[in-house]
Amino acid sequence: MEPQEPARRPAFPPPYPPPPERSAELRRRFAEEARSQWPDLSALCLMIGAEADGTLDEAGMDAAQIELDELAGRLPYRPGEPLAWARAVGRLLGGTHGFCGTAGEYERLESSLLHSVLRRRRGLPILLSVVWMEVARRAGAPVYGVALPGHFVVGFGTAGDRVLADPFEGGRVLSGADTELLVAGATGAPLEPSMLVPAAPLQVIQRILNNIRAWATARPERSDVALWAVELAMLLPSRPARLRYDRARILVQRGAFTEGAAELEAYAELVSVVDPTAEEKARAQAHAARALLN
């Protein structure tokens, strides 16, 4: 009897990506949803999760949506003014169910994946805010996301009667001074009214993907994560041309020199009229990438 080879350990800890066929289907649906008239925030978040985690199948995605529905069903019926909504959602999610954040969440990819946040009750501010928004919205609350610099929170009500809450701190209701301190701590600048404008679903998705890319960029060995994150971002409407440059750089980093060079040349063509300096730089990088093939 011949000795068996020891099982190979994965190069990285989970989650592991889905097979190519599943990934292609997810990306088709992601692009379709992103271009719909009313993009579904939770559905887009779950497709990001499925792109990151091959164990998240259709049943798992449906289960996550059902959990959001069930949580919404546990809220009191129309509790009243914006402050009452904020407190009711905070008591349910931050209190009863223990959703909150910790400093360690910034070190975990799972903190940016909705299905994992629902399971672990932990996540980044923006993913916890997605949970708050999706649960409150299902219950009829006037709720929206607020993309403060460096820290995402949720708002209840309208501009004239607004209440902000911080899901990362279990749903703590923020005073005006609290909000000013959050912004000053992140930017050193004062709070501007424009920072309180409700964030559209696709703006939330773009920020989530940016967070994932930032996580991967700090870990060069996880260029695979950076690549799918930028490729999903490229499926969003009104995407910046810079994403093509970012994708090209990742491809070259991963050793796909020919494909990366072609993408750099395509980017150079796009910016040739508006930014000749960027065009020249991209063409030089494309030439250098092709030289690596020799």
UniProtKB/TrEMBL annotation:
**Database matches in InterPro entries:** SirB1_N
Q: Which Pfam families match?
A: TPR_9, Transglut_core2
Q: In what ranges is there compositional bias, type Pro residues?
A: 11-21
Region annotation Disordered: residue ranges? 1-30
Domain Protein SirB1 N-terminal: residue ranges: 64-210
Similarity comment: Belongs to the UPF0162 family.
| Designated name of the protein | Tetratricopeptide repeat protein
* Taxonomic placement: Bacteria, Bacillati, Actinomycetota, Actinomycetes, Kitasatosporales
